[in-house]
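Dear colleague,

Following up on Tuesday's group meeting, I ran the structure prediction for the two-component complex that the binding team flagged. I've pasted the input sequences exactly as they went in, so you can double-check that nothing got truncated or mislabelled along the way. The structure tokens for the whole assembly follow below. Feel free to forward this to whoever is handling the docking comparison.

Inputs:
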Amino acid sequence: KQEVTQIPAALSVPEGENLVLNCSFTDSAIYNLQWFRQDPGKGLTSLLLIQSSQREQTSGRLNASLDKSSGRSTLYIAASQPGDSATYLCAVLYGNNRLAFGKGNQVVVIP
Amino acid sequence: DGGITQSPKYLFRKEGQNVTLSCEQNLNHDAMYWYRQDPGQGLRLIYYSQIVNDFQKGDIAEGYSVSREKKESFPLTVTSAQKNPTAFYLCASSGQGEYGYTFGSGTRLTVV
């Protein structure tokens, strides 16, 4: 069974600092890995999708890396802003098109 | 704009009632999914459907039922057999290959 772990569960950073969020998964046989953002009481918004053959994806201030062999992904958010405060979820697609989620990194950016 | 629409946003259920949550997508995606989200537990898969008229149980299907009569629609019924239905329910869809998952905005169900 695929298990996804996100560390740390919660963190606070001063505005302007870079954010580093970690995700690990137990089974390296994945099709892709997706990072989502969730605001309180809202649905999930897709941030970045990394195919299993890729090493990283970038969108604006966001960069996500994937090391499939070690079962790890890292999401970097450069120059954090208060608007980046949210929960970030990592999910891997594996097996019969199943998606396994981590429990999320709850981020607070302090102005 | 293409996307997933979930309704209602808030739903209240009395003990012993069945309620149905709506999920509609206009992304032409083949696969659709229902997840339940509880605080501290992450997202758990209830049911999924990869094609019309076919669906499979996820990890926590007991007390729930679904149908997939149209490609665009995947309603979830929370039956009276579900003993702890208060949660945030999320619907998602995915296309073939590399497109990832798209989520709706969720329905918050509360038992009163």
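Chain B is about 0% helix and 55% strand.

Cheers,
M.
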